[in-house]
Design a protein that fits this description.
By secondary structure, the chain is α/β, with parallel strands linked by helices. It is built from 21 helices and 21 strands.
């Protein structure tokens, strides 16, 4: 008879070789947890190599998920359960396991070869030497059990071993009282053209679940109840998926065709993969031969009256720089998505970073101001990319939407809105209302300094396009010094005035005035929110605000900052937002920087808050 223990929240870390199906295992458990009504936050972490060196520390792939019946904002600082498929996975992640935590180890992955690849001393096996005595160790030959349950399936040994992740998933489902139904349906869909693989993976999944019931050692089962959430229809959403759906929603709200042009790059590629599934919404996707071709194609689509969008990561954005300036000079709507990763150059392709903020705001030749907005978590990608589309079209300007690898690949429950709940987006195309003898002035502006969107082929609205400086109103080529300065000032003022059409900055947690304000942007949101909430519960005088509109900044941000004695700015870079805040508001903000390719932990932030407050 197994014991049942109720938990408010649990952190599980799956780890193994990149060929062990770790990401799939974690994603499936996350999806099932979402169906059970749990709040969730995930953190996939994998090597950059397509086939990383097997059995080595460099080849370890991990998937950490935090699910609970309480609000969850981060994937957790440390894990309650560590599932490892080999020695390297244990060595790479053991320090992240809580004392007394559970280790579920595939003993077959701790043979002499694997121990050597993981650089354990000769003759040392951590599963047998007592070094793991502070944890609850469950060492099982998962490989052997999987092969046994698939005996007679007709599969090769290599094919059978690929189902080990399903055995593990089935066992974890047993531990946390989860049904197998959703994963069985996924397997049937995933391998519908290979019925033998459907059968093998379902058998392995069920065998793992049954193993929990039949194993002789005493086990504990756990119950994590549904979270108390606002009523509505939810789904599990990853950041890149939310971005794709937000683009589709914006295009449909505008009544425009979405044209998405890109060149594949980690971690932005999944936006293309997701959009390519939705041709039924009139989405057009174009995989270009390079980054420059991608952005110029998107500019051409916008010139023709479509919603032009392009995406990349930092290296690709660098290549798009001149064309972004062209879109600015043409004053056309264009959405540029940067899913940030570790840099510079190729850098850390599969690791997260926030180091492209200054690139987004300043990274072009000449005076080339554009709007910059950022998402705070996976579901927020939907709303902020939708907002990027709205600003681009209503203000005829390129808009940067910033995400990063942590947000893009992370998942959480999302209560998705009805179309009627979404903010209207006003699209106005120029009409030929000219009087006899009157000339069309393509750069004549309204009170927002926005020019009209003139579609090619409209009689009487012919005008020049190109990157050479425009004469005010006429759009003719101009080398006049006074005109150049005037146009530079106008383009900057147009961006500045957008501050009148975005929300004011709000305090997320804490008071409107006090000793310390933690000011964040992007994917630092969950860690800051959790740290500040815990610090508030302990009596600290601290507040939290998260900036989503980074250029222009909200109109009231300066006044809000002045209400606090000290400002702390945590960033996953070497200090970028802090430069902007110090420059604009002349405040001596405190930098807290982490540049390790991984997010801030709650503990790190709480310690920094305590240090500043002298506690």
């Amino acid at each position: 008879m197994t014991k049942a223990e109720v938990k408010s929240d649990v952190v599980i870390l799956f780890a193994g070789d990149s060929g062990d199906g770790i990401q799939l295992t974690g994603t499936q458990f996350s999806s099932t947890a979402a169906l059970y009504g749990n709040d969730i936050s995930t953190f996939p972490n994998f090597p950059a190599e397509i086939r990383a060196p097997q059995g080595t520390l460099a080849g370890v792939s991990g998937f950490q998920l935090h699910f609970g019946s309480v609000p969850v904002y981060t994937p957790g600082d440390s894990s309650d359960v560590l599932v490892v498929m080999n020695a390297a996975a244990l060595k790479a992640n053991l320090a992240n396991l809580k004392p007394g935590g559970i280790i579920i180890a595939n003993s077959e992955g701790f043979d002499a070869k694997n121990l050597g690849l993981a650089k354990y001393p000769e003759g040392v096996n951590p599963l047998m030497d007592g070094s793991l005595s502070r944890y609850k160790l469950e060492s099982t030959d998962i490989t052997k059990l999987t092969r046994t349950c698939l005996a007679g399936s007709g599969l090769t040994t290599k094919e059978m071993d690929r189902s080990r992740n399903m055995f593990v998933l089935g066992y974890i489902y047993w531990m946390y009282n989860r049904k197998l139904d959703a994963s069985i349906e996924f397997i049937k869909e995933q391998f519908k053209k290979r019925p033998e693989l459907v059968e093998a993976n379902v058998r392995a999944l069920q065998a793992g679940f049954n193993y929990g019931d039949t194993v002789e050692a005493p086990m504990t089962r756990y119950e994590v109840k549904a979270a108390s959430q606002e009523k509505g229809t939810y789904r599990s959403i990853m950041g890149n998926q939310a971005t794709a759906i937000g683009l589709i929603a914006a295009a449909k709200k505008m009544g425009l065709t979405l044209f998405y042009a890109t060149y594949p790059i980690t971690p932005a590629s999944d936006i293309l993969h997701e959009l390519s599934k939705h041709k039924n919404f009139g989405v057009k996707t174009f995989q270009a031969e390079d980054e420059i071709a991608a952005i110029t194609a998107a500019i051409g689509a916008s010139f023709g009256g479509n919603l032009g969008v392009t995406a990349s990561s930092g290296p690709g954005i660098a290549l798009k720089g001149e064309a972004i300036g062209l879109a600015l000079m043409l004053e056309l709507p264009l959405v540029i998505i940067n899913v940030q990763r570790g840099g510079p150059s190729t850098g850390l392709p599969t690791k997260t970073e926030q180091a492209d903020l200054l690139q987004a705001i300043y990274g072009r030749n000449g005076e080339a101001p554009v709007v910059v907005v950022a998402a705070s978590d996976p579901s927020d990608c939907f709303y902020m990319v939708y907002e990027a589309c709205r600003i681009a079209v209503e203000h005829m300007t390129p808009v940067f939407f910033l995400s990063d690898g942590y947000i893009a690949n992370g998942a959480e429950p999302w209560k998705f809105p009805a179309a009627a709940e979404l903010k209207d987006i006003h699209v106005t195309f120029s009409q030929n209302n000219l009087k006899a003898g009157e000339k069309f002035l393509p750069y004549k502006r309204d009170e927002k300094l926005v020019r009209e969107w003139a579609i090619p082929g409209t009689k009487g609205l012919e005008h020049r396009v190109g990157g050479i400086e425009k004469e005010n109103e006429t759009g003719n080529i101009s080398y006049d010094p006074e005109n150049h300065e005037l146009m530079v000032k106008i383009r900057q003022e147009k961006i500045d005035r957008i501050a009148d059409f975005i929300p004011l900055q709000k305090i997320d947690s804490g008071k409107e005035k006090g000793k310390l304000l933690v000011l964040g942007w992007g994917s630092t949101y969950g860690s800051i929110k959790t740290a500040v909430r815990e610090a508030l519960a302990e009596g600290a005088d601290v507040s939290h605000a998260q900036i989503q509109y980074l250029n222009p900044l909200p109109k009231n941000l300066g006044d809000l900052i002045k209400n606090f004695e000290k400002i702390l700015i945590p960033e996953m870079n070497n200090g970028q937002l802090i430069k902007i805040i110090r420059d604009k508001y002349l405040v001596d903000a405190i930098a807290f920087n982490k540049i390790k390719g991984v997010p801030f932990t709650t503990k790190e932030l709480k310690l920094k808050i305590a240090e500043i407050l002298g506690k």
